[in-house]
User: Fold these one by one.
Assistant:
Number 1:
Amino acid sequence: MSSSDSVSHLEQLASEHPMVVVSLARTLYALPVMNVREMVSTPEVRSIPHPPPGVRGLINLRGSVLPLFDLRSCFGMATQRDESLAFVAMLKQRKQDHKRWLDELAASVREGRAFTLTTDPHACAFGRWYDTYKTDNLMLDTVLRRFDEPHKRVHALGADVVGLVKAGKQDEALAQIEAARNGVLSQMMTLFDAAEEIIGAANREISVVVSNAGKSCAVAVDAIESVERLSRDGVTGMDEAMAGQRVQSILGVGRRTKDNAFVLILDPAMFLGAA
């Protein structure tokens, strides 16, 4: 098929058939609705030895065993599960950092030595991350905003305790530390737990079951955005868009009618040919 014929085919596809628009790492992709059998929450995945490229394993969907392609893996991205686990691991580490910070503050008072950890809430590892991190998840954003006040109070305690020790008030300093352990630090620990729970819930994968000519497979994506018709005028063949460079698995580039956003149109044969 020539480049012009390919574009005409895509224009016809976009104008006559709705597309299932999905998101993947903040990029939009589309599959022709005529090739989409259903969309489901990803069931348990069974691993298989030596899987083909992009295949995570097998799923059992109401008695039908289907290969599950991980679209992120197909495009060389970290999987959503890996990103989620890394995020949770980072939060767990920052949680332990603040427990150890308070333990070290108490030990410095009891042992009569200088406290050398930072009292600046913007200088600790969590503070540096917190000051720059942005999220579109409203629930996570709400929880993160609630960190600001207790996090600042925890670090301010360091300066207060150092001042009390200099004034010879070690017992009062230790009492303040214990009050913080059961108060403001405990509040932070609860917020860390809430953030971890939200991340786990937000990253539940969706699988799109793709079918054609009697063959079926499932494709794991981050989220389903919509079922819609793309703008016919906005369709561009991939050869033209990439200056003659063929991009395997992507038929072309389309645009959404509501906001003119780019959408990469996937070739179902990418999955069905390997299923």
Note: The two ends are 24 Å apart (CA to CA).
Number 2:
Amino acid sequence: MQNSEEKKLHEEYYIKSDNSNTLKYKWYKERYFNNVKGKKILEIGCGDGGVVQFLKGENEVYAVDISKNAMKFLKQKGVKAFLADVSKENLPFKDSTFDIVIALEVLEHLKAPQYAIEEIQRVLKQNGRFVCSIPNPRTGHKLLYPCLFKFRNFKKYLSNNRFSILSATTYGICPPFWDQFRTLITKEWKKEKQELRKKEGGGQITFLTKVARFMSSDLMSAIKPKIFGWSFVYETLNSNPFGAKEIYKEIAEETKGAY
């Protein structure tokens, strides 16, 4: 298939294999996938290895990403990787293939997140688990659909598509008055990351990453207001594999009398 404009933009999205997100990925593993064995697992948009790099061996793991560079890094880490733009292309798997699908801070990048949701439901077994996260809009991340990616709105969006919500929490911290010192903190974080790469020959764990991991402990998650989380995390069940398509029928039925 000819490269989409989005594929061209993301072709070299991952410049090098980077270990700086290791603490975050291990948090997901410990919180949602401890003792998971013998499962078929797909992660979408995990070009630097994602969570599945820590689930391989005891599980059959796959990855899909839009970046050509990601294919190289994922295969180096022993993950079966497939190139696809999940905003418009079918996932290259049969219906009801996976026990678990993971998509961490991916859906907000898509022109058509609803299309991706339909595909995720299709390849996920009934009552299979879908774990996803989105960035808190307060971080300053540019969003195609800003209102969708508010904590309660996205939770409702998943419910509308007939996912059963098991849990909703946050990762990291986006502190009060973030707008006032975002530029300075981001600048210092990038500087620290560059220095660590030069010193040790690869992406290393920064101080801010360690702070984010600490702020995502069970205790801190319990007392931290969700509005101050860096990203919003949802654990769901695919209770109705056709739910995303059925919502169209319901909307059409409810509104046809208005025209």
Note: The longest strand covers residues 124-135.
